[in-house]
Amino acid sequence: MLYETISGVYSLIVGISILIFWLVLIILKKTNECIEKPFERTFHILAEIITALFAIVGGIAILTEQIWRFHYFFFAMGFVIYAITNAIGIYGQKKFWILVSFLMIALVTTASIVISTIIKIN
Fold first, then answer.
1. 20 to 30 A from 2, CA-CA: which of 39, 82, 121, 122?
2. Helices 38-63 and 2-27, packing angle to 10 deg
3. Spatial separation of the C-alpha atoms in residues 54 and 22, rounded to whole Å
4. What is the pLDDT of residues 4-30, one digit of tens each?
């Protein structure tokens, strides 16, 4: 049960953090500093918002012990792992090393939580 709670809370934190990150950048009008091309930027932000929503729903599903919680959680974490990996490439190319370091920690943490959850439910 502890691992489920940790996984659910982590999923919520990740989803909410992604939404806050983009909301702050949109409000400050700094999104073009992250991704210059408007078309690419729009779809990148859209993909990250979808990822955030999946992570939030996955976290809620685990915390409320829905029957489908693990399937959804693993699906959402797949989105998150892809988004983090993609972001490392984007921000690494721009030499935003502090953000890249944070994202690498998030990638290792996400993978560890997913693996731990798989081990605990089997």
1. 82
2. 150
3. 16
4. 899 999 999 999 999 999 999 999 998
